[in-house]
Design brief:
The structure holds 2 protein chains of 2 kinds.
Chain A lengths: L1 H35 L10 E9 L10 E4 L5 E3 L5 E6 L5 E5 L6 E4 L5 E6 L10 E4 L2 E4 L7 E4 L11 H7 L5 E4 L8 E4 L13 E4 L2 E3 L2 H4 L20 E7 L14 E6 L8 E11 L10 H13 L5 H5 L22 H5 L3 E13 L3 E13 L6 E14 L4 E16 L10 H7 L7 E3 L5 E5 L10 H7 L2 E17 L4 E20 L7 E3 L3 E3 L2 E23 L4 E24 L14 E25 L3 E12 L10 E3 L2 E14 L12 E15 L10 E7 L3 E8 L8 E14 L4 E13 L2 E5 L8 E5 L2 E17 L3 E18 L5 E5 L2 E5 L7 E4 L2 E4 L3 H7 L2 E3 L5 E3 L5 E3 L14 E4 L5 E11 L2 E11 L2 E4 H6 L44 E3 L2 E13 L8 E15 L19 E2 L8 E9 L1
Parallel strand pairs in A: 1-7, 13-16, 53-57
Antiparallel strand pairs in A: 1-4, 2-3, 2-5, 5-6, 8-9, 10-15, 11-12, 13-14, 15-16, 17-18, 17-58, 18-19, 19-20, 20-21, 21-24, 22-23, 24-25, 25-28, 26-27, 28-29, 29-30, 30-31, 31-33, 32-33, 33-34, 34-37, 35-36, 37-38, 38-41, 39-40, 41-42, 42-51, 43-44, 44-45, 45-50, 46-49, 47-48, 51-52, 52-55, 53-54, ...
Helix pairs in contact in A: 7-8
Chain B lengths: L1 H11 L2 H11 L6 E3 L8 H27 L5 E3 L5 H7 L13 H16 L11 H24 L2 E2 L8 H5 L4 E2 L1 H12 L12 E2 L2 E2 L7 H12 L2 H15 L10 E5 L3 E6 L13 E8 L8 H6 L3 E3 L1 H8 L2 E3 L5 E3 L28 H4 L5 E8 H14 L3 H9 L4 H5 L3 H9 L23 H4 L17 H20 L5 H12 L2 H9 L6 H8 L10
Antiparallel strand pairs in B: 2-10, 3-4, 5-6, 7-8, 9-13, 11-12
Helix pairs in contact in B: 3-5, 3-6, 5-6, 6-8, 8-9, 9-10, 9-14, 10-14, 14-15, 14-19, 15-17, 15-19, 19-20, 20-21, 21-22
The chains are: A mainly beta, B mainly alpha.
Chain lengths: ~1050, ~550
Amino acid sequence: MKKNNSTQMKIELPISLRMLLFVLLAFIATVTPSMAGEKGSPSLKKFTVTGLVRDANTGKPISAAQIQALNNVASSTTDEKGQFVINVMNDEEVLSVSAFDYAVREMAVRGQKNMIIDMYPETFSTFYRSLEGLNGKERTTTTTSSSKGLNEFRLPQAISPDEFIHSELGGDVRSMYRSGNAGYGTSMFIRGLNSLNANAQPLFVVDGVVWNKTSEDAVSLQAGYFSNPLTSIEVGDIESITVLKDGISIYGSKASNGVILIKTNRGKSAVTKIDLNIMTGITQKPNAIPVMNAEEYRTYASEMIGTQGLTKNEIAAFGFLKSDKSSPTYNTYHNQTDWSNEVYRLGNTQSYAINVNGGDERALYYFSLGYTGNNGIVQTTNMARIHTRINADFKLLPTLTAKLNVSYTTIDRDLLDDGVNNRTSPTFLSMIKSPFLSPNTFTSSGTKTKDYADADEFGIGNPAAIIQKSRNYSKQYRFNIGVTPKYEFNKNLYLTTQFNYSLDKNKESYFQPMLGTKEIYLEGYGYSFNKAANQIIRNIGLFNDTRLNYSKKIDADHTISAFWGWRYQNDYFESDLLSAHNTGSDNNTAVLGSYSYVQTNGTNNLSRSISNYASASYNFRNKYFLDVAASLDGSSRFGLETKGGYFIFGHSWGLFPSINGAWLASSENVMKDFSGIDLLRFRGGFGVTGNDGIEDYATKAYYQTVRYINYANGIVLTNIQNESLQWETTKRWNGGVDLGLFNNRLTLSADIFTSRTSDLLTLKALDVTSGLDAYWNNGGELSNKGYELSGNLKLLNDKKFQWEISMNVGHYKNTIESLPEGDQILNLYGGSVLTSVGNPVGVFYGYKTKGVFATDAEASTANLHIVNANGSYSYFGAGDLIFDEKVKDNTIDEKDRQIIGNPNPDFYGSFASKMSYKKITLNALFSYSYGNDVYNYLRSQLESGADMSNQSTAMLSRWRSSGQLTSQPKATYGDPMGNARFSDRWIEDGSYLRLKTVSVSYRIPINNTFINGMDIWVAANNLWTLTNYLGIDPECSAGNSVLSQGIDIGLVPQTQSFFVGVKINL
Amino acid sequence: MKKLNYIVLSLLVSTFALTSCDALLNADSERYTFEENFQMKSAHDTIFSMVGVFSQLQKLGDRYILLGELRSDLMETKENASRYLKEINDFNFSEGNPYIDQKDYYAVINSCNYVTKNLDTSYTVLNDKVMMRTYAAAKSIRAWTYLQLALNFDTVRYYSNPITTVADATKSYPSIGRNELADSLIADLKPLKEIGTMGLGTFGAFKSSLNIFPIKFILGDLYLWKGDYENAARSYHDLIYSKKAEISKNYQSSWTVDNKNVFQSITIAWQNVLKPTSTEVLASIGSSSSYGQQFTVDSLSYHYDIAPSNLAISKWTTPIYYYGPTVQTEGDLRIYGSINPPNMVTNLWLQSPNPYIVKYQLMNTDKEKCLVIYRNSLLYLRYAEAVNRLGCPLLAFAVIKKGLSDLTTNRPGAIRNEVLKYGNGVTPSYMTFTDIAFANNYGIRQRGLGNTNLDTTVYIIPRLTSKNDTLDYVEDAIVEELALETAFEGNRFHDLMRVALRRGKPAYLADKVSAKYTINKDVIKDKLMSPINWYLPH
């Protein structure tokens, strides 16, 4: 089977090549004669169209509407009766109609001499618009591939661009919030999961520059923290966001996970405009998983002590068991502390931004400056962001222009460890900490002091002390400067070259105090009481994109445009870590060499890539569209002898062609009879893209430094050379249809896709003689099939009241088709993820359970046992879980593991409603995901019944006496039978429907020379969620890797938040 | 078509890229060293790579001990032990047992190959071919590692070029047996045997030169396994002479006797022979408390996963401590330093309820952890084993009983006669101990059992019917002495194996090893009667 696949691949590549060549030749053949005959343009008889432009609701004529012929130079304007006359070249012309306060509309003439054109108010969204594409703005009717974009942003309270993508493009990009903390961003996947072990996040291209987001994957010192480079883009600076899913072969080896283009604002006209944005808001505390109260926990803890096998004296030493009120420690152990109050608080956010936009005929500029501050819902955590951006456009000569982009953002955060971490994460400790203890100490007479208590007698830390004594922060800077000169040879041909330098630097400092935490034994070192660490992460990107652009309208029928270019990227990534333990005092928080167990670590990676690309588009009468594109990519990450590559100029290059076509069927003359169909467009295409997200230097044999006996360094071979290592290849077919019905009241778009990713990056085992375990190799395939639907309905179009609803939905089915190294199991967060042929990526692999043994008799009938580490057997008894045996040998062991959950959803997406009444607009947006399973790692810790940590109230129904029928097993110290092991007990349905955001805005009618407009708005996030999920937030992501999806590691959840803001135009 | 593809593709490659595409696409690293930049043209490169070899060697330390001892009569697993350790003890291995993984052995071999293939051996400093020492060091570590592989797995895959590419790694390397391996390694090592030991100074209290196994010792072992006793004796003797390796009185544990028959006090000094300060350690693998591979044998022993067998304990408690013809008691004082008997002198042989092994603690300092591989006692006992088989049992026995010096070997008497007879009237050079350095050589047994040199009843060779019986008797004594002296140091199983193979009697090993089991004794014996089970599965 493996062989089949590889031969198949070998044949297929030339086929796609041939196809490309054929298309290119055909293209040249069709274009050349028409170019030659340009002067004596074909004699087409003129065609006159008369028409009426009117309001779709009232039917009243619209005067001064602009009518423009798209195929030919012709235009007209309506008179006061809304009537126009336009002379066009033929009866297949397309007219674009625009009018003040109305949305643009395109109408095909379709042989009609008389046309009635209904226009909708601007408050509605429209299909006919221009959207940022791969080579500047494109009219959406002319694009051949599926791209979705945003240039109207409905989330005034957003902090990071991820939030727009999550809510408004929810069917196009499946994204999951990494945490409820401000600006942590989302993990995103476009059209399924297109890799196993390599990067699976989309490529971000910001103002034409490919953003390297390596720093995002750097391991932070702070547990549960994600540094999100996108947060350095202030959302108010964004002009548009476009998601490109196919036809992206010019980004060749970087594009297989999709491309997201972000374009920032630029100066638009010589009229100076000033916008002021001010907002403030509050964020609610989470509704944490309910845990036992003081008395419940006391009972639980007493029982647990009994299962530890301690001696009488050892048990007597526990302070909490003393019920003598005169005892000096009585007060210490008799409190009613709601630990969540010690950790959480009401969070708040403020944001102020100003942007100025103006210039003269020589230069246009856009300038913005702003501050965003957030106090997190966990005490002492906060974020402060200051951003500034200058985008300028200069006209240096009549033929020479230049763009300048400069931006600088700093993000400072005070942080705390987050997620399941039983030593230092206050959020987690607040759940497991005994409620009968107090955050403070007591004097010997029983009076409460102001001092923080240390870790308790169960070894559980004091979250309040950790919050006060920790010194954890992150200081992140991003500086970006870019210049893009553009030289126009003539009106058809120009050359641009874009240079860009970016520096992303993150300085992290971590101090874990000794007060409030339990010391731990570090194997091979000794006891650690406190720890200090520093890390600096630096990511420097150099980028150049040089492009020759040609476009020509040959005659009324034929338009061509093409570009040919070269892109170079140099990315340097460095991280330096220094950590030390036992600083002697919680006042010494800096890392000094004299402390114990000093460790240094880091990475230092350089990667370089070159892409040669070309693209050509052809448009026949704005009805038939054809795009071909290809890139030829080289990278320092690729070997010299790749199987799928071409060896040219001393390197191996990957070829990534694509072809896409579209047919605007509604512009055909025969369609004039189907009056209900205003728009009908078919799209289709095929593209090859790659994924170069492989480890740097993996092709080379390299040696790494090892520390030897404290005093010396040695180097050892850690990787062997594999010159055949290459990119992963994704071949994707797509088809789509766009439909506008009932005078464009209803628009629908549907896309289907099927893709196959081959050459998956996998670890291949090495023979023992090499002395190494494995090497990175290409092998294995996976496929993704799915659809995306979106629709928009103008529900009500009244003069004063307009209501529009829109929805989108995405679906993919991911299947692993082949794995040369067989099934793989990855263990993470106490669970296991299986990668096996025939199953989707990321399925949970664990034990199935069938309830709890009520009695010993029941257990002995079942006669199940485990094998202990020393080889002896332990039998399951009453109160233990009944594990399902896959292999019937009475032994519950790894062989009994089965697939117990799938984190991939059946479908996901969002829907939105927008209502406008006069000057009031009400937006509501729901997001949803259906059919995905979540591994609730947090709950597995709160119901483990294995130690002295407090448990969720679900454990009140734990098995306690013979005959008791319950679903919760007994609690036994150390969980010797593994009742808390990774099983379907922790797998839950993560489906949800959430009212993500609601906002109301009001445009204050102002007629003032200074103030041109003023909007005030209120908004709320996460008001309502429908889910059966037992955790706090079903929307979770443990990281960017495809194999860590659907795991709830207990990070700060998203909670309700409320905002109010004002936007002033000066 | 393919050609056309290339033409079209070449056109697609922009001219920008043509200019210096090579430099544009190459990425260096400051943290990794690439093969092309690591050519060992400088002394630094060789130091770093040798230290790299040392750090790889650390991974073999635990296995050397556990595979050599848990399968022998002297060590056993206790209830706490992990399944994998128990599998070693029971000669019954499951897949995934980390102790039978061969990868780490080949990692050492591959690293050594890299050094020997890339080293510029002609590099000189003041007429000294300094790189030759590094070359010899890498060859010695490689040979030792190969020998361990062959002893544990029967066959090895032999290669001498470094594996640095996938193509190298997927080649099939010939699988060869122990004898063929020995021939290759001997040919490899012989020209290097007189080259001095590479020194990188000390790392804390650990002498880096100890990481390099003496070539002469390895050569001796290789000859001994092959049955070439003359060359074995010559190599061991060569090392004894060039290192001036002695069995020193400084490491004697002894009783003080007063009133002619009362044991008064005890001096425990033998255990110091294992310490990092010892003058008798020839090779050891060093590690540290903070970096690199941690040796686990010490904690396994401390946590009572592994323990001395009752058989091992009885080996120390039963021999006769000889002070004089009338003053005797039971017990070998080398029990101190081997296991933890109760500290009460008078109750010396009252067994501790949980006797554990203390040797590994002794080998460590505060910061450095070491596992001793070769030391003088082992060298002398191997020498004894070789000369015994050459037909000189008296000379061999003297190693145990009174020590080899000019006085014991060259004074007119039975030993001298035996040597002369063997040398046809001439004392072979490898049987002389005239150097003054050996004047005070002690018998190995003397350092734990008193004045055995004076004994005429217990520690003598009985009159036996054939010469062969005498050789076997002395060989048995040597094997017993190896147990008393070098127990738990990693060589036991292979010592038994060597003798059993030499005699063609699997029962020699099977009987001795199966004797330690209380249950399954017969099953284990049966299993060990087939030599194929002496090797680890692979």
